[in-house]
Every structure is written in structure tokens, then in C-alpha cells.
Design a protein that fits this description.
By secondary structure, this protein is an alpha+beta fold. The protein has 13 helices and 21 strands. The structure holds flavin-adenine dinucleotide.
Length: 393
Amino acid sequence: MQSHDTIIIGAGAAGLYCAMHAGQRGRRVLVLEHNDEPGAKIVISGGGRCNFTNLNANDPARYLSANPHFARSALTRHTQADFIALVQRHGIAFYEKTLGQLFCEGARSSPKIVRMLLDECAAGGVEVRTGCAVTAVRKAKRFVVETSHGAFESETLVVASGGLSIPKLGATPFAYRIAEQFGVPIVAPRAGLVPLTFAETDLHWMRALAGISADVRVSMGKTSFREAALFTHKGMSGPAILQISSYWALNHYLEIDWLPDLGEDVLVAAKRSQPLALPKTALSQHLPERLADILCGSHPPRPLGEWKDDALITFAQRALKRALLKPHGTEGYAKAEVTVGGVDTDALSQQTMEARAVPGLFFIGEAVDVTGWLGGYNFQWAWSSGWAAGQAC
Ligand SMILES: Cc1cc2nc3c(=O)[nH]c(=O)nc-3n(C[C@H](O)[C@H](O)[C@H](O)COP(=O)(O)OP(=O)(O)OC[C@H]3O[C@@H](n4cnc5c(N)ncnc54)[C@H](O)[C@@H]3O)c2cc1C
């Protein structure tokens, strides 16, 4: 049986980043990946340009976890600046798109990030075996890993096999199975950064708007996002909706502000300047016309001048500024960018990502109950948690 210091399961962002650091520390590292190519999600990420980090990525408030403080240690010890420096050393051009999001420059440029990680792994003497599915793990004195290429053993084992999103890219529940086997608790996983679906009562008007987007503020309790929302044939998507989906729970309402730059007196002001205009005409100066039409739909088409100010304010509050929408569900793991939940952080060391009760066993990346916002935060978590484990595994 081949023997290594460290075996890493999964050649995604977290696994490769952990491997290069462990290898460059002098550890003999083997990475096992069941896909034929490493880094499948990196390649397709950011529309092929890989949004590899965010300038605000070390703010722990931008990550969801049952323990909101857990991610702080790794994120502040190995930051976006460290990853940016690596990208610069490899001569990969990048730019800030919006809201601190850093993307590689040029169409189909994300494979450059995979190449960079593989070059760094090679510099550390790391062996990356692809087309090799891990089927079982046991621990005697050392870890024994059963695979489609036979058995391997190691002193430490890093589980970097990700979450459940996009099964067709190789996602499996393997990390949760290993956690259960070793008595490490799991926070129930669910789809995050995912389009939301709606029941027929809403869907009939949403379908009519499919393809139309608007700049909105969407809120769930105290959490809110100001970005674009997009109507689809199944409901709603777009960055604002993907962001809030990670916080949404079944049977809860979302509150939408369709006019985040305007006050509740928007129509009263319009009444003063254009008393003969219909509300939908006034609104279509700020919103896509078809959306304005639908938001005003149930009201009689009377000119603004015929409305009392109070009625216009009440209408703006209910239909425009604090509109309530109740999603019916999500489009599920097939369309989710991430999995919320995963290996319970209470069972892991914040410094090293090692399972407290199982010396030598580490969990990193999306497998862990730390989920970032849209915009490069999830890769930064993969890099920071991979680095933390890479110092210790
Ligand atoms: C469409 C899409 C776009 C995204 N864009 C961005 C973006 O621009 N910016 C951002 O920050 N985040 C983005 N994300 C999220 C980001 O890709 C993930 O958070 C990140 O890849 C997680 O890294 P990971 O290494 O933990 O898991 P993964 O990248 O999922 O890697 C896990 C690896 O383990 C392998 N594996 C699983 N089970 C086994 C097994 N039993 N044996 C062997 N191998 C196994 C898998 O094949 C996979 O290669 C995107 C996600 C998707 C789906």
C-alpha cells in the first residue's frame, strides 16, 4: 500500500490550496479526485472568469455559519491580500468588477487559476491523482483510504470534497458521510445562492416578466441586499435573490423595495409635477415598464391628480417599498452555487480545521458549515481554510 504524510480528498479550490501549502512545507501529499480534471468549479466559476476573491473578504459578517465567529481566524491569518499576491506572482491579470469582486481578465480565463494551483502543487512535490474515486476511509494507527485505484495510507487526512451543489460537476455527500462515520456533527445542509421558485399565484405574473431585471433592495429580517433581481420562468434569480436565498427559510416572506433610491412619497411627488399621468406611467420612469404595469395592476387606472396623498403613500408602502413575496422553494442543488450548512464548526479547531475529537482528520472548504456571500467570498473561504489546514496537516 502506498504511504503518504497527508492525503487530501478532492482537487477543488480548498484541496489544491491546502495541498500546495502542505507540500511546500515538506509534507509528502497525495490529492485524490474522482473527476477526470481538477478544479471543475473553478473553471466554470464567475462565468469563466473566476471571481477568485473579494476586497472585503475578511469581514466575517459576510459568511453564514451556526457559529458566526468561526471563520474569523482563518480569514484574518490568510487574507485576500495573500491570494492576490499569489495571482500577481503568476502574472494573471485581473480587475475589480463591482462591490470589491475580483475577476480574472479575459474570456475563459479561469483555467489560469487552476494552472497556478497545479504549478504550486508541483513545486511542493504534490501528487494529484484524477479519475480516482474515494469510496471508504478507516483509521487504525494511520488513515487508510480505499479508492477506485486501490488503497492508500497516510498520517493525516484532509476532507476537501465540497458540498452538494451541482452534482453534474462531481459534488457528493462524501464529506458528511466521513463526518458521521467519525462522530463529527453536521449542520443540516441546504441549497444556497440559488434561484427561488414561486407558487402559481405569483408565477403567473412573474412569467410575464421573465428576462426583465430591476435594481432592488431585498430583505429577510435584518439582512438585506441591494443588487439586481431577475424574473425567470420559475420565479426569481439575479444577484439580490441569490444572496437572500442563503438566508431564506421555508414559509418566510421576503420584503422587496422596488424603488430603493426613492421615498414612500414617490407618487405624491409625481402627482405634483404630472397630475394627469397614471401611476404606472410615473413609475415607468424608475422601473421597467412591464413591471410598473404589473405592480399597479389591481388599481383602477385613474390619473394621479384624482388620488388622495394618503392613498398614494399607502399604495407605495404596500406595493413598492415594502412588497411582500413568499417563495415556494428553490431550484435546488442542480442550480445552487453553494451548500449552506455542513460539518459543524463546533467540532473543529478554528486555527487548523482539525476535528477536535479525531486527531489527524481535517475538514476544509465548502464541506464545512461556513458559506460566503456571492462575490468571491466562497473561494476566499476555500483558500483561507485550505491554508490553515495546510500549515498543520
Ligand atoms: C456555477 C458556480 C459558479 C461559482 N462561482 C464562484 C465565484 O465566481 N466565486 C466564488 O467565490 N465562488 C464561486 N462558486 C462557489 C465555489 O465554486 C465553491 O464554494 C468552491 O469551489 C468550494 O471549493 P471546495 O474545494 O470546498 O469544493 P469543490 O470545488 O466542490 O471541490 C470538491 C472536489 O471534491 C471532489 N470529490 C467529491 N467527492 C469525491 C470522492 N468521493 N472522491 C474523490 N473526489 C471527490 C469533487 O469532484 C470536487 O472536485 C461557484 C459555484 C458554482 C457551482
